[in-house]
Amino acid sequence: SCLTLATQAEFGDGILHPPRTEKHTLELIVEISRKFDPWDLDNFQKAAKAVHLSGVHMPYWRDWMFACPSVFLAGEVLHTCHKFFADHPLKWIKEVMGDYELDTRFMVQHKRVGTRHFTKGVTHVNQMTGREYRDIQRTIVPSIAGAVPPRFVRTICALVDFFYLAQNPVHSSQSLQLMVQALADFHTFKDAIIQAEARKGKKGVKEDFSIPKLELLQSFNGTIMKLGNLMQFSADVTERLLITHCKDLFPRTSRQIKDFTEQCVQILNRQESMEIFGLYALLTSRGAPLVNAIHAEDEDVTTTNPALSWVSRVLPDEVRSIHGPRPVRNHFLKGILSGDALTAFQLNVTPDYKSLTPSDIRTKYALLDFNHALANFIRRSTLSGGEHSSWDPEHGRFRVWNKFRVQLHSAFQPRVIMPSRVVQAYPPSADFPLGNCDTVLIDAMGINGKMSIYVAQVRLIFQPTVRRGSKLELPSYLSDPLLYVQFYRFISSPDQCPEVAMWVVERTYMQDENGNRHREGAVIRVTDITHAVELIPVYGEAVVNNVSSATCLETYERFFLNSFADKESYHTFSTEFV
Question: What pLDDT, on a 0 to 100 scale, did the predictor assign at position 288?
């Protein structure tokens, strides 16, 4: 190991071995140098390998005062975590489940806007990037549940837990303890991988875990305590620059290695010159000043795209002509805010349907109890708020949207605004015979009169309207957009399902006066939503026939509330939600 004194046979023992310090390494090099001339490469290399050294007799850090390789060689998340996941755990899963079943489970998952969906599965991708590895980790745990032994699932879950905790932008003693415990859980249950004969090499089944990257994970806790969070050392930026500044430019060069670097630099210089000239031409043609005054004291550090920020202030109508990264749009400025102002909602000014009758909604969205649910909402709101209205929902008109956005502050850094999440509620169509509707977490008044947390599927986004010229005024509870949702109920907690460590929900049903069974629905305010969430079906041993990504949320009855959907959700379900 480059960080500890662990040997290859000890890489998988789950023990943090003593650090490989600067003093220890230099003493070994001096001792070997007394016996063999460093330029006698053959003998010197053999002696160095015998004491687990690389054979370099003058390390670059040898004269760095107070520097120790076991400290400054920090863990790197992209390769140590994500590449390790692709090279080992993902291959173990493929061996146990088989390509077809694993691909099918990823292919039939519900498509969410902003989340990668593997339309053709995950086993046939020849070349993946760190982004694909992360996207697979988001749903791998609930996807394999039921198809592999529970202890095997728990092993994979422990690793993904460790990866997510290691990527925290802010750490505490509690989060570090959870990270250490997650890695310990992996080593506790890793025998399930051997029992399943999932770890294989060129000579057949392996019964050891002599994996260098696995041993490096033991040092993460100490590195974070000494140097801070690991994301500051991630190679994501440099790997991305390799694509944008080398690979993408390769087709535009002569493809000769002798002057490839010079050609890339020339191409990048020309691109930058054209962008600067385009900005100059835009500003001079509109008579705008050519001096970009600093708008805020720290703007030169925090602005994602200085040119975009400049033009947005002096020529706001020309913002679209500037190409480059866009900052996160802040919906807290002009959107609809929740009662505690911690969540913002945004709907388009123009609705998808400007005027629908209750009959139109029942037919188009297949919501037979819409009138009953709306009447119940009006009755509850009238009793709780004391506002009365003569508006008749039976003869009313409604504006309807097919989607809206929900935006939150970061759970780790409350001053940071996260990118908004799209929540869909499309009616049945040829592509989506049962509708295309996302799921959310809501905090609303329960039947017992107390605030309760529910998981629900948004089926309709609407707002009552009054005819032009009418003197009728809508009460406050009808002035903001409303949602028709269908509920799920919690049936087990993470403690009751430790191998997956997720909440499990199932559909709720009710019977009408005729004895017909249908989904339980209700009307709520849009501001009752706290999070957009992801549900993964409880597949069981095999995926149901004839199910697809367009119908999976309507076909299955039970679902995992996916805590690995993103890092913010993971933090929420492991702290606040508990």
Answer: 83
